[in-house]
């Protein structure tokens, strides 16, 4: 009898070992299947379904909930669950997840959600949580330690795979946005003059640095057969793509209206009406527009709320302030003045957007109006291109390693009155 009892115990032990071996084989096979699915780039939904099936079918888990990063404004989303009530499914545990930084045995009988579970396993990647799995409903004879170890392993595999998918998707989106911004920047640069005139009686040169690749700064010029030169510089409120789109529309309107050859006052009224109609008064544009007559050497201009350009010659420095308020904010401009300057000496006019005087150095000092005025007075004798080169050098020396805080544009014009105009 004793030998028979021993044999029975041996057979029972062998059966138990065979069962455990079979379970290990199932677990290994499931891990291999899951790994192959990840390598074959299965959709996240299929990976979650495989994870759910493994925990509930192979491991016999009765209650579980897996939370991973959401793709929308919701930070945490339950992607697999079983054994929960309707109320528990609807419960928003997201704000409480940060409390769990390591595996925790739960004892929260009074909590509407946590009461369903016995433990929570957080999955960390570079010390940051990327997933949480809640487990409950163990049987008394379950080897909890073994199951928890395996659940932790498979949850880490799935969570890291899903996080990599999420990061890769974000990288693709960022790359797509980068390419779109590059394309938008190229298209915007097509709206900016590719070259500027250089003649005996006038010449122009520019510096154009949009902060985000695209921006709301704009400058342009047109030469007319009757000997007049029109030029402008503007700054659209806002930054980035929105400002760039408005700038493109403004460019079309500017060219259409300036080619009508109406007086400056009428031109600025029509331009304001156009901008106001498009933006509804929510956006505005500062603009300086001028017209130089090479036969009379007279410069007429309107400053619509823009930084006053600096006109400098041997005998004087003048700020070109005459004009009106910003464009687009009002259906009708309250007052409009037209400035006029008779040029009798070689003169340089610096027009710029406010990104220039927003430039700071490491000490927090600005390259302000006074510094700019002093620079113009010192270098007004240079050609437009030479002046801009010296200005860029001065800015680089001033700001050091600091960046440009905003869109930054300069349009420099040099006029040389002559008896026989060009």
Distance between the termini: 127 Å
Shape: elongated
Tell me the series of helices and strands, N- to C-terminal: HHEEHEEEHEEEHHEEEEEEEHHE
The amount of beta strand, in percent, is 15-25%
The amount of helix comes to 25-40%
Number of helices: 8
Q: Any idea what the radius of gyration is?
A: 36 Å
Oligomer: single chain
Question: Which residues sit in consecutive blocks of at least 5 with pLDDT less than 50?
Answer: none
Round the mean pLDDT to the nearest integer and report it: 84
Task: Give an overview of the whole structure.
- The chain is an alpha+beta fold and 422 residues long.
- Helices cover 40% and strands 23% of the residues.
- The chain has eight helices and 16 strands.
- The strands form three sheets. Strands 7, 8, 9, 10, 13 and 14 form a six-stranded mixed beta sheet that branches. Strands 2-1-5-4-3 form a five-stranded antiparallel beta sheet, with helices on one face. Strands 6-16-15-11-12 form a five-stranded antiparallel beta sheet, covered by helices on one side.
- A hairpin with a 6-residue loop joins strand 1 and strand 2.
- The longest helix is centred in the middle third of the chain and has 48 residues, at 144-191.
- It starts with a helix and ends in a 7-residue tail after the last strand.
- The relative contact order is 0.09.
- The mean pLDDT is 84.
């Amino acid at each position: 009898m004793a030998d028979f009892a021993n044999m029975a115990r041996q057979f029972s032990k062998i059966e138990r070992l065979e069962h455990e071996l079979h379970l290990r084989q199932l677990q290994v096979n499931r891990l291999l299947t899951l790994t192959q699915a990840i390598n074959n780039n299965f959709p996240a939904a299929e990976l979650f379904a495989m994870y759910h099936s493994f925990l509930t079918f192979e491991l016999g888990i009765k209650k579980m909930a897996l939370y991973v990063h959401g793709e929308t404004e919701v930070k945490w989303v339950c992607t697999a669950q079983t054994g929960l009530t309707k109320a528990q499914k609807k419960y928003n545990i997201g704000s409480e997840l940060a409390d769990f930084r390591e595996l925790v045995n739960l004892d929260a009988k009074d909590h509407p959600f946590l009461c369903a579970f016995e433990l929570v396993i957080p999955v960390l990647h570079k010390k940051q949580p990327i997933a949480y799995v809640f487990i409950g409903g163990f049987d008394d004879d379950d080897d909890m330690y073994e199951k928890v170890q395996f659940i932790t392993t498979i949850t880490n595999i799935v969570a890291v795979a899903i996080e990599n998918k999420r990061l890769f998707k974000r990288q693709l989106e960022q790359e797509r946005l980068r390419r779109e911004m590059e394309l938008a920047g190229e298209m915007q640069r097509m709206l900016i003059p590719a070259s500027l005139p250089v003649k005996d009686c006038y010449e122009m040169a520019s510096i154009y640095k949009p902060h985000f690749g695209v921006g709301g700064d704009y400058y342009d010029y047109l030469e007319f057969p009757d000997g007049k030169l029109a030029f402008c510089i503007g700054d659209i409120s806002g930054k980035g793509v929105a400002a760039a789109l408005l700038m493109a529309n403004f460019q079309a309107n500017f060219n259409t209206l300036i080619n009508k050859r109406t007086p400056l006052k009428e031109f600025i009224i029509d331009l304001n009406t156009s901008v106001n109609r498009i933006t509804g008064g929510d956006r505005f544009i500062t603009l300086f527009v001028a017209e130089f007559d090479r036969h009379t050497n007279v410069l007429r201009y309107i400053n619509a709320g823009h930084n006053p350009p600096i006109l400098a010659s041997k005998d004087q420095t003048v700020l070109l302030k005459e004009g009106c308020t910003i464009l687009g904010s009002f259906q009708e401009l309250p007052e409009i003045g037209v400035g006029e300057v008779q040029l009798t000496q070689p003169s340089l006019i610096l027009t710029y957007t406010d990104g220039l005087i927003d430039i700071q150095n490491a000490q927090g000092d600005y390259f302000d109006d006074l510094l700019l005025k002093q620079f113009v007075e010192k270098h007004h004798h240079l050609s437009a291109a030479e002046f801009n080169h010296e200005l860029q050098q001065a800015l680089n020396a001033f700001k050091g390693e600091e960046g440009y805080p905003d869109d930054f544009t300069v349009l420099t014009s040099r006029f040389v009155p002559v008896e026989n105009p060009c």
